[in-house]
Amino acid sequence: MIVELGHFALIVAFAVAIVQTLVPLIGAWKGWSGWMAVASPAATAQVALVAFSFAALTYAFVTSDFSLQLVVLNSHTDKPMLYKVSGVWGNHEGSLLLWVLILALFGAAAAWFGGQLPATLKARVLAVQASVGVAFYAFILFTSNPFTRLEVPPFNGEDLNPLLQDPGLAFHPPFLYLGYVGLSMAFSFAVAALLEGKVDAAWGRWVRPWTLAAWLFLTVGIALGSWWAYYELGWGGFWFWDPVENASFMPWLIAAALLHSAIVVEKREALKAWTILLAILAFGFSLIGTFIVRSGVLTSVHAFANDPERGVFILMILGFFTGGALLLYAVRAPVMQAKGVFGVVSRESALVANNLLLAVSCFVVFIGTIWPLVAELAFDRTLSVGPPFFDAAFTPFVIALAAILPLGSILPWKRGRAAALRNLIPVAILALAVTGLVWAMQTGNSLGGPLGAGLGVWLVAGALVDLATRTGRGRWSERLGRVTRLPGADWGKALAHGGLGITIFGVAALTAWQQEEIAVLDIGDTLTLGRYEVVLNDVTRVQGPNYFATRADLTAYEDGSELGHLFPEKRIYPVAQMPTTEAGIDSGITRDVYAVIGDAQTGGGWAVRVYIKPFANWIWGGAIIMALGGVVSLTDRRYRVAAGARRQRLDGVPAE
Amino acid sequence: MRAALFAAFVMLASPALAVEPGEILADPVLEERARDLSKGLRCLVCRNESIDESSAELARELRVLVRERLVAGDTDAQVIDFLVARYGEYVLLNPTTGGSNMILWIAPLVLLLLGGTVAVVAITRQRAPGETLNAAEEAQLKALMDDESKG
Fold first, then answer.
1. For chain B, how many helices (H) and strands (E)?
2. How high is the ipTM of this complex?
3. Cα separation, A73 vs A91, whole angstroms
4. A602 to chain B, minimum CA–CA distance in Å?
5. How does it sit in the membrane (chain A) (predicted)?
6. What is the CATH number of the domain that holds B77?
């Protein structure tokens, strides 16, 4: 019964979204305030209805209601509770329900917190947001209904894909979707602004927090996914340039560009048309990502051909919204005239360079991702585009971005002089010194490691110098006091840029200096790898709630002193008929000791593989610091002060 | 034969590590070359995995094949040519620069140059509204000036 109510609520939400699209749009066009006012309550009703629908599906999963097809295909009574809940979005239908829930949530948030928005802009934003909802409700209800019942319910389910039964991956999709779908706000604001024919500083101030929120959720989501791949897939890779990964990375790159260009709109009223275009592209890439992941077109063209219904539907959604918005852009963009002018040497110019590099690097990922498809359809060549291409084509952009970042962030607005960069000279010397030192110290002659270390120092020290210059002049004690009172935006900027430096260093160090050893060990044998030794103590069979495992007990030593025990496992999930590996990891600040257990060898003993992964945790640590920078920036008082100032003026008109 | 069958059965039953201890060549220089080559070759039955990372049976066969060719004295290029002749260019994770693939490699560079040019031109040519007058404003100014001179 609850399940049917959930289905019904979704249908009602679909109807509400149609109303929310049409009525406020007409209201804003004709200037009827009553019609425009429909948007806010409709947005609230929509989120309540979808939330109920989502709760109903969750209830079916938690209670293992096997009369529901989706539960049968993705759950099992023995599955731990965490994965019963995460199973709700661990499949196509449920993940789309999560998608529309978050979409409705963002729409409602704009309705609740958008009190200061001009009435027509608010009505249009909510209408555009609802129109995206209409498309996705239709997609769910007509092609991917999660509430399909079975006539004869089986006794038990078929279990969730064991790779997904992991805490890292349980929370990966919600964060990713908060990011993907969060970009819909930027899109709605962009389309609404095109309809209004007006973009000003206030618009920039409105769009930025939404984009920032979306970007930071994407950052966390991508980091979680990368961390999961690192410990779960069994060889400690952290990024594979897989189409599904690229699908989340492209909107991240464009969102990062959008964040920076929206600052220029807000502070200097320039780059308006470009910012609008980025906002459309950011959500466009979110839709492309959804298409790539949900249609399976890039994993196999044939999988797509066998079940084209869903893929074609998403392609139509993608074409309608991106194409429609771009068409509107082509017609209306000339109206957006810049007010602020800036010199060639200025922060604005540096941000243009940042945008150019981010946008083209996104294009690199895009063309690499779709090239196999293009080559097959257009040139009849079946080929692969793998990590070697992306590493070669993408890395130069990262280096260029990191190289100009501290320079741009310290330049003044409008018209800067190269003299403003004086403060960075010591940082540049330090970064070069570190590069040389690391080059001299390392064994082997990789260029990536020293370069990564140099860029890391350049970014982190550059961010610190940026903070220091913000405190102005005076005695150090005064400046130290002032630095704690700097606005959240300044701290957020320093954190995000420093975090990027840490991630770049982690990636470079791990790639350059990773060590690996494979050996057959009997119980009691020792594997030696540089300064590290690993002893195989025991191998046992273990039974988990819904799997069997072969678990090795290893002791790791560093320079002869014990680090602790590692317990790598090889699991078999009998219901899903799938094996997984669980690495045994001794995490450290400067390195991870990473062990995997393999097969029992026919000649006796076990295959054991051990890696030393230098600075591995810095990759995700840097990403978390970046996201934290986003959070700190969002707490900036100025967003609220601006809101308050408006109200004060309204109250403060003296009666005469 | 039965031993081989048994080994195959074990492999299928529980895929484990990528590179197995038994596959490793005694010569560390050759082994290093084999590993580097393996990282650029696709496991044809996997989803976006190199044969160096994959635990599939086919990946193991390809790893052994690469090592056999190296031991027989092939250069890296000869090994790659051999595999492409056998499996097509689908096996290469690093796409060639030949033919239509030129577009793949060049397009980002072209876009960067194009975007850079547009940006530089736009920055150097920008003019704020109000710095110059449009036709209507010119006329208005003229009218005002005429009024002044008359009055």
1. 6, 0
2. 0.84
3. 9
4. 8
5. Multi-pass membrane protein
6. 1.10.8.640
